[in-house]
């Protein structure tokens, strides 16, 4: 005789609001942001993202502290010209953002494939492009925060320290608002696109993070060497593969500064070409990753 027991759990069908496709996309965005930040997960999952957030806060606090100390001793104008400005500060915060993108992007994509839950997602009114768009949006919001929030704090702090007054400084630097937002958007699109392409095809999160960092750091050196030594026809076009440098070229273009001799510029390409490369990269990755997930389903 079997020991099986039938238990009445009081099962009832779902009676709440049915939010459809938009609700499913919004839910994926929220859950992806929680996963990226380690919320509702074990403490060890919170260490990396919140350590990087702390580093971003410390970097802007140190920069503001230097400006404050210089203003206190009456050399604010002299010191300000030697410290990183709005444009140069992107180089500092980008190193932190790159690490965040490298380690978080695979965690948003790889586990769902490895654990076979994509079929569950797509059993709802949700297409692969919706799923990928929601993942990209969640990461984009967080990465934009890495760039924009410290720059905003930096901007408000400089206005507070300015001898001419808070509001006169803000009024005289209105252009900074769109410049920071636009450059942060270009950085985010470029770096997340590369990370998405890697995470969509590499199954292991650690390996995907390493491949992404290799592309963003080592590829620059290889491309620079090819452009410098290359004598074959069209070798200058290899410079366009220096993916990490294109946002920095756009940044210099927007802020009207020169922070280095970047390979695409050495090869003779104008800054608008770098902006076009970022746009083309986004489109290529969107098409390639969408096709990859369409085949998985």
Molecular structure report:
The relative contact order is 0.11. The protein starts with 19 loop residues before the first helix and ends with a helix. The chain has 12 helices and no strands. The model has no long low-confidence stretch (mean pLDDT 88). It is mainly α and 297 residues long. α8 packs antiparallel against α10 (246-255). The chain is globular and about 85 Å long.
Strand content: under 5%
Distance between the termini: 43 Å
Q: Describe the global form.
A: globular
Count of beta strands: 0
Query: Major beta sheet, specifics?
Result: none
What fraction, in percent, of the residue positions are helical?
over 70%
Order of helices and strands: HHHHHHHHHHHH
Q: What integer is the average pLDDT? A: 88
Number of helices: 12
């Amino acid at each position: 005789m079997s020991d099986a027991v039938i238990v009445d759990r009081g099962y009832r069908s779902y009676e709440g609001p049915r939010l459809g496709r938009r609700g499913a996309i919004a839910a994926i965005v929220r859950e992806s942001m929680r996963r990226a930040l380690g919320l509702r997960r074990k403490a060890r999952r919170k260490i990396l993202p919140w350590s990087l957030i702390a580093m971003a806060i410390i970097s802007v606090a140190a920069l503001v502290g230097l400006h404050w100390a210089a203003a206190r001793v009456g050399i604010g104008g002299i010191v300000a010209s030697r410290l990183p400005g709005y444009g140069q500060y992107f180089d500092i915060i980008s190193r932190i953002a790159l690490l965040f993108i490298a380690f978080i992007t695979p965690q948003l994509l790889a586990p769902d494939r490895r654990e076979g839950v994509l079929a569950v997602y797509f059993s709802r009114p949700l297409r692969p492009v919706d799923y990928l768009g929601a993942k990209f949006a969640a990461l984009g919001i967080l990465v934009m925060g890495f760039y924009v929030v410290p720059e905003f704090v930096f901007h408000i702090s400089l206005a507070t320290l300015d001898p001419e007054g808070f509001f006169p400084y803000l009024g005289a630097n209105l252009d900074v608002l769109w410049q920071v937002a636009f450059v942060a958007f270009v950085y985010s699109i470029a770096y997340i696109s590369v990370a998405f392409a890697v995470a969509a095809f590499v199954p292991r999160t650690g390996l995907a993070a390493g491949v992404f960092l290799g592309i963003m750091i080592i590829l620059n050196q290889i491309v620079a060497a090819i452009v410098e030594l290359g004598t074959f026809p069209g070798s200058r076009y290899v410079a366009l593969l220096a993916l990490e440098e294109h946002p920095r070229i756009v940044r210099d273009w927007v802020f009207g500064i020169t922070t280095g001799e970047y390979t695409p510029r050495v090869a003779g390409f104008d800054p608008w070409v770098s902006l076009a490369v970022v746009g083309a990269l986004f489109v290529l990755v969107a098409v390639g990753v969408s096709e990859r997930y369409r085949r998985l389903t």
